[in-house]
């Protein structure tokens, strides 16, 4: 049998199987196994033929071919357009990726635990940042500033409850507006809980003990551990902690202005005492949240079914109780209290940014220590950014969080000000915190860095295309040069494919620019206390006008980025072509389990990998046949992860065929602890029936750079580069020009069928097929049992 697994963007079972008549034999509408209708009962009709890889009815066109099955998982990451809202959680997803980017140091290294804790703390700060942004919009801009300004509130009937009656006092307005961030926190909790049940609750199949090839440090590869794809306990604990953190953030936003009023001369003395008591309760809640987040990481040795009752139940309930008490304290009658300027406590954004900078810096230092401790074969010079990829991802997550925060606040302030300019003379509202204006001012500069790098990359691609174009025809034996444009088109495809290898340099440039510009924004806001435009009024020449222009442009860009993100996500989930464009980052990000941020988009691999593992166990155990799992692009990563989960006896009857695979080119460089040279070499040692096909024109796939002749006659894993296009010019046999396939249609190359047949023959030649079907695998009785 051949089990086909598609890649990014998905495809239909009819396209995968090459037959319009298909039937689903297992799974559901979200992810399922499909066969051609003619093959639905192939095993029951002629079981003796399926071991030799023939169609049951012996048809000539199918003779010598394995029975094809298609595993379709695209609905795990796509669906209706409402799922575009997941892109608003992009900072959470990037922070979760940072956890898996740690260098390939031994698992027992002391710095590894520190690395994991730092990533989880960065993720926690992002939850606080998102909740604080919701508080900034609802409590500060709407309830504190606009509801108190007659010019702003005029013409907004929806502000009526905040401008008159019992709710007109500032504290009560804040309590009413706090319903928005509380609802947002509840929504995130519900989505995390619901998606766990729908996507990540698939239990792994039973696996008998057996030897696993260890890494150089002596530990087992992470993806071979039974509990890797089932992290219920950690997700449950982190979900509770982040929910409590969101509720405590809202409580602090209510408590700080009310306590600040009561502390002033003439304020309520008894009320101030009660306020300080509540402040102590909020601080104790924060201490509990930090302890829960930092105390324990993932448990992967076995599937962890347990839950921490105290963390999962008591902590969110206690935080909700504290919030209720703070809301009652803030709503206490204070007739003399009036709102002015910005809401007290909005300086938290500066402290959050400073804290994130410290955490990212510590994370970078820890990553350097781990990178130096990695064995020589752990990265072999291929590790992206010298092991600093995780720190760069964490900084990018913080930057994206700042963009979403600032963009939303800036656009809401402009909308409330009815055409005025918030924060300047004549404006109806004071506007968002000064730091957000400084963050907006650095966005154009950061985009300029990206544009410069893109121009440099385009120039390099052009020069590379000119250099390799004359030699293209020489790689096609017996073909004559047809035209200069044909050679240039092929060379251009090769040059563009190599742009993928420049991604680490772009990430390093953006990371350095973000760090420098972010530091400058924080310093400018702290030293001047005013937005960039007014702060530059004393500067000479055109600098004041330039600073004001940059701030205004950045403000609009931040708001446009938020809208663009939603629009891109909506289009990606409705249009297959757009989905392929953004699907690479999205499918890489949601491939990994939620180990750092529980509110990140769900991990589809925690459903897909157990599905594939169960299918391989069941089919080989019940039939005793040979199986090729054939994965394209992201499907090759799922296939490799599933093969890693097999026991040695079952793995001996399974061959792995990958094509257009990012296993080494993307995953090996950016996630060295799980897919670096050490783990991939261990997989190649356990799966000696593995072939990988690749092309020079493929921008995603590449060689895996492992395996070879280890003395047993095994062929190397990599086969390539394959010719693309298959034929250079026109001929009598090929009168029409062959297309440049790039990342797709590997099955169109005759090499594909030959390598698949060779894998099946190698399985049979190695004597791995049991004599009696059903006597191997964990789902069938074993000898002596």
UniProtKB/TrEMBL annotation:
> Per the record's keyword annotation, is Transmembrane included, yes or no?
yes
Tell me where on the tree of life, at the top rank, the source sits.
Bacteria
Positions of the region Disordered?
A: 29-63, 766-785
Q: What keywords were assigned to this record?
A: Membrane, Transmembrane, Transmembrane helix
Residue intervals passing through the bilayer: 84-102, 114-134, 174-191, 240-259, 271-294, 314-332, 348-371, 383-404, 438-459, 505-529, 549-569
- Quote the biased-composition stretches of kind Basic and acidic residues, using this chain's numbering: 36-47
Q: Does the keyword Ion transport apply?
A: no
Query: What's the protein name?
Result: Integral membrane protein
Source organism: Streptomyces carminius
